[in-house]
Each structure stands twice: as structure tokens, then as C-alpha cells.
């Protein structure tokens, strides 16, 4: 999915997925600011996947969204509504489900090994910092909320194993 937003003047914005929607069309279709942000997030996720291919080479070539449980339409073929649904609160790429997948990956991978769990937590933060650098500025707020929820779950498991987390910020 390609999303381009340009401001020609204060009354016009353009979205481009498979079609172009003007601001008046967006108002008529009741496209909210949240949906616009969600569309940006979907674009960001695509860009990160593309960057992952460059960064991780052959390993990324074997990775697919099905590996994380996504069996829907290819991201590049989504309509605006479909992309918005995916990043909605209950959507596959929404805060709740995404933070669960991140935390479960770390928790399940570490098992009962406190050191691996702490290293996984550090890896989450390092990966998040790299995503910020690739984005070039502050990420959309949904990203910070998602990471905070994932960290809370990992931190709870660290505490269960008798460990301590000093820095709980994203």
C-alpha cells in the first residue's frame, strides 16, 4: 500500500492507495484523523518490512507475515478501510494483538531463563530505537503505546522469576 499525503493548500489533502481521495471525499466518507494515522502506520509497517529485507538479507527473504499469524490479503493490496481495520484496536496489527505477539515472542523464547528474558527485553528496546532512527523522527503514538504494553508483559514475567527492571520507559 502506498500512501502519499500532500497539502496543496489548507483545504486539500490527497491519499493514494489505489485511488485518490480528496479532503472533501474524506469528509463525506467520514475519514477521521485516527484513520489517517492508521493509514500512516500501515505505510510505516510496509516500509519497515522493506527495510528488514535490506537489513537482514537472506533471513528476511524467508520471512512472511504468515510467520506471525497474518493470513489476510497482501498488505500492498489493502484498501483504506481494510488497512484501518488491521490497525484498529481489535485488528491484527492493533495495539493489543501486536504487543501480545512481541511480548510472547520474548517470554516464550526465554522460558524460565531470567538472563535471556532480560536480554530479550533489551533487544525489544534496541529494535524500537532502530525503528525510530529509520523513521527519522518520533514514531506515531500507537507505536509507543504498543511497546509499553509489550514491555509491561515482559516486565511482569521478569518479576515472576525474581528479577528487577530498573528502566520501564520506552
Summarize the structure in words.
The chain has 170 residues and is mainly alpha-helical. The chain has one domain. The chain has helices at residues 23-28, 33-56, 58-61, 80-86, 95-110, 114-135, 141-160, and strands at 7-9, 12-13, 15-16, 20-21. The strands form two sheets. It has a two-stranded antiparallel ribbon. The chain has a two-stranded antiparallel ribbon with strand order 3-4. It is elongated and about 50 Å long. The two termini are 28 Å apart. Mean pLDDT is 75; it is low at 1-27 and 53-57.
Tags for this entry?
170 residues; mainly alpha; two-stranded antiparallel ribbon; two-stranded antiparallel sheet; elongated
State the end-to-end CA separation.
Answer: 28 Å
| Spans where pLDDT lies below 50 across 5 or more residues | 1-27, 53-57
Q: Which shape, going by the Cα principal axes? A: elongated
Lateral arrangement of strands in the main beta sheet: 1-2
Amino acid at each position: 500500500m502506498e500512501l502519499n499525503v500532500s497539502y496543496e493548500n489548507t483545504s486539500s489533502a490527497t491519499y493514494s492507495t489505489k485511488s485518490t481521495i480528496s479532503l472533501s471525499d474524506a469528509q463525506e466518507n467520514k475519514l477521521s484523523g485516527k484513520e489517517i494515522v492508521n493509514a500512516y502506520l500501515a505505510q510505516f509497517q510496509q516500509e519497515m518490512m522493506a527495510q528488514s529485507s535490506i537489513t537482514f538479507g537472506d533471513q528476511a527473504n524467508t520471512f512472511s507475515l504468515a510467520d506471525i499469524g497474518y493470513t489476510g490479503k497482501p498488505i500492498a493490496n489493502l484498501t483504506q478501510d481494510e488497512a484501518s481495520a488491521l490497525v484498529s484496536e481489535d485488528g491484527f496489527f492493533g495495539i493489543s494483538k501486536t504487543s501480545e505477539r512481541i511480548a510472547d515472542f520474548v517470554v516464550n523464547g526465554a522460558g524460565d531463563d531470567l538472563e535471556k528474558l532480560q536480554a530479550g527485553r533489551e533487544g525489544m528496546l534496541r529494535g524500537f530505537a532502530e525503528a525510530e532512527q529509520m523513521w527519522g523522527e518520533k514514531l506515531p503514538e500507537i507505536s509507543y503505546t504498543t511497546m509499553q504494553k509489550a514491555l509491561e508483559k515482559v516486565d511482569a514475567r521478569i518479576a515472576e522469576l525474581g528479577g528487577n527492571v530498573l528502566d520501564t520507559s520506552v
